[in-house]
Design brief:
Elements (H helix, E strand, L loop, with lengths): L1 E6 L4 E10 L2 E11 L1 H7 L4 H22 L9 E7 L3 H18 L3 E5 H7 L17 E6 L4 E8 L2 E7 L5 H11 L6 H9 L24 H21 L10 H29 L4 E5 L6 H13 L5 E3 L3 H4 L4 H10 L17
Parallel strand pairs: 1-4, 4-5, 6-9, 9-10
Antiparallel strand pairs: 1-2, 2-3, 6-7, 7-8
Length: 353
């Protein structure tokens, strides 16, 4: 079975074509275009601008995905598309394109929840790996720019919500803290890169919800703490150089703060995963979403799970499949397989898991 997946929920315009033989899902082509240069210029995403860029990019990206694997349209079994949650203008570009293609090419249309899609990146075959797919029950952590959710999957499409963020998402916290350090958007990879040169112990930051017995998260307090620290440090610098026109951190202060921010966010995520593992017996753990691309999160989680001495595999998609892409949407569609009449599908920006 071959499925084409379209993803335009935020600022990326992505299309991938995947093939499923028995349990093996492989990527035939995967194209992602992002308006990264515009985000860097404006320090984030401007929704109308993102949608305008996506209108220009969507057909060339789909065309490139088809050409890359030399696919004939008649060999395509279905079209899948993200229909929510996300930015309404961006979602509309993908949804309306997919509806049109489904009608013109006479293909079934499968709508996919973006959040579910992130998890299904874990079912995609990585050519060099042992290729184990997640086993149920599977404790699953979604850490993206807009979501931080912990759920227990008992089967495809069956899950229990265990907890989530009460305010900002983990990725959002990375992005907001990066802004305070005057680093470009998206902030997660920038903080992570800078953190390698820093000392995580120099500045003490509060670990969000440390010691709480529930499985919720919170990151707005951490951002406020970083903001206070930056003000304090730049104020100190100002006193030393009273005529300095710009309040600036030194490179070392920035690196040390980046290391402390990364360490603090990771510790709060790992603590809750371990707490959940002590509460719910599971076979596997999977993480997904942009923050799952963080190497330190992967290594800390691996170590802490190993220390529990339980036979649990940790599944993490390859870094390019953690951030938004069309492959995860096509992968999810193999399992969801709920076709919809293209004329009734509507984008839903507030869709939840
Ligand atoms: O899943 P995603 O691509 O988009 C959403 O659905 O939100 O996640 C984007 C988020 C951004 O907040 C970005 O800063 C974060 O993922 N991110 C990272 C890393 N790569 C991306 N955060 C920490 N470390 C990374 N290596
Ligand atoms: Zn996403």
């Amino acid at each position: 079975m071959i499925i084409l997946g379209i993803e335009t929920s935020c600022d990326e315009t992505a299309c991938a074509i995947l093939k499923k033989d028995n349990d093996r899902i492989q990527i035939l082509s995967n194209v992602v275009a992002s308006s990264a240069s515009l985000q860097a210029k404006y320090g984030g995403i401007i929704p109308e601008q993102a949608a305008r860029e996506q209108i220009k990019a969507t057909i060339p990206v789909i065309q490139e995905a088809i050409e890359n694997c030399k696919l004939k349209i008649e060999n395509l079994d279905a079209i899948s598309v993200t229909y929510g949650p996300g930015l309404i203008g961006s979602l509309l570009v993908g949804v309306e394109t997919a509806k049109t293609l489904a009608i013109v090419w006479k293909k079934p249309l499968i709508p996919v929840n973006h959040l579910t899609g992130h998890f299904y990146a874990n079912w995609i075959l990585v050519p060099s790996s042992t290729n184990l797919v997640p086993q149920f029950p599977c404790l699953s952590l979604l850490v993206s720019g807009g979501h931080t959710d912990l759920v227990l999957f008992t089967d495809h499409g069956q899950y229990k919500y265990l907890g989530g963020t009460r305010d900002d998402a983990a990725g959002e916290c990375f992005d907001k803290c990066a802004r305070l350090l005057r680093l470009p958007y998206p902030g997660g990879p920038e903080i992570s890169k800078l953190a390698r040169k820093g000392d995580a112990l120099r500045f003490k930051l509060p670990i969000p919800m440390k010691g709480s017995k529930d499985l919720d998260f919170s990151y707005s307090g951490l951002k406020t703490a970083v903001s206070g620290l930056v003000n304090q440090l730049t104020g100190e610098l100002d006193k030393q150089k009273p005529n300095s026109p710009i309040h600036q951190l030194t490179n070392q202060q920035k690196a040390d703060l980046a290391a402390a921010i990364e360490q603090t966010i990771i510790q709060s995520l790992v603590d809750k995963v371990i707490l959940a593992l002590k509460t719910y017996p599971v076979k596997d753990v999977m993480i997904a979403g942009g923050v799952a691309a963080n190497q330190k999160l992967a290594s800390e989680l691996k170590l802490k799970i190993k220390n529990l001495k339980l036979k649990i595999n940790l599944h993490i998609p390859s870094a390019n499949l953690c951030t938004d892409n069309g492959a995860m949407i096509a992968s999810a569609a193999f399992f969801i397989n709920k076709k919809i009449d293209p004329l009734v599908l509507q984008a839903d920006p507030n869709l939840s898991l």
